[in-house]
Amino acid sequence: MCHKSITNTSSATKPFDHAPEIHKIHTLQSPSAPTCATPQSHSALVAKWFGIHSSPQFPAAPFPHLRTPAPGQIILLTGPSGSGKSSLLRRFRRRCKLPLINIPRIPLSQKPVIDLFPHTTIESALSHLSRVGLAEAHCYLLPPKHLSDGQRWRLRLALALSKTDLNRKLQIANCKSLCLLSDEFTSLLDPISAAVVARVLRRAITPDSNLCALLACSRTDILRALAPDLIIRCDFGKLELWKKSKGENYVLEGETSQQPKLHPRPPHPQTRHPRRL
Question: Which strand (E) or helix (H) includes residue 232?
Fold first, then answer.
């Protein structure tokens, strides 16, 4: 009896003696098991559901045949977010033959704001800063890192406009005009500040200033203040060119001036809802 109990315990203490054989049988039977189909990627399913071709790049709109912006001219690229404004602006930038000043890329050092204008007088620097809405005295002594995003954007615009004086001095030696470039123009500003900045830029860019601008933004509440000479509306692969007509109206390319389509000024409440007699 003792011998049987010892043998039973010895067999119970080794429950995994046949484990290698079981694993061997499992590996032999696994190839004959039915395999699942490889799942399709999300992009393939979306292309199949919506009937479009999957491509790594969004279809670009045809590049419009435009001349180099003349001094005093403002070209505005507008449209909803993701419609291709930034891509079209980059294509304009590569083909533009004028010296460019990319406003969002202007570097800012850690010096006080007023010391970022060594190329001009202090009176001119204060004038440019106040024109873009930076008229607080304590802001002049702060480094740019202590300013808000909107204030830093306006500071870069003031630095770009301050180069107008140097451009006028060099106009005799170099007749090329400067082109201001800005993506997401006034996107970081509130509606009132955006309208003020747009009006300042419109007054600064004249044929006498030897400046032009290529801007891109999705907001339309600055059209009246900015008064661009040409509006290119991007619509996900399609382009519409609106040329400035008489007054504040814009006409779609190919239409007559008697059929204005775009009005930068909103209709008056009395004309929108006339009083009944």
Answer: strand 230-234
Maximum Cα interatomic distance, the chain, rounded to a whole number of Å: 120
- How many C-beta atoms surround the C-beta of residue 137 within 10 A? 8
Sheet of 178-183: strands edge to edge?
Answer: 100-102, 178-183, 211-216, 74-78, 230-234, 239-244, 250-252
Q: How far apart are CA 189 and CA 273, in angstroms?
A: 31
Q: Is the residue at 236 inside a domain?
A: yes
Helices and strands of the chain, counted as H and E runs: 10, 7
On whether residue 117 sits in a domain, the answer given is: yes
Tens-digit pLDDT profile for residues 27-65: 444 445 455 556 778 888 888 888 876 555 555 556 667
Q: Give domain status of residue 83, yes or no.
A: yes
Number of domains in the chain: 1
Q: CATH code at 144? A: 3.40.50.300
What number of residues does the chain have? 277
Between 5 and 84, whose confidence is greater? 84
Residue 171 domain-assigned?
yes
Name the residue range of residue 219's domain: 74-267
pLDDT in tens, 99-143: 899 999 999 999 999 999 998 899 999 999 999 999 899 999 999
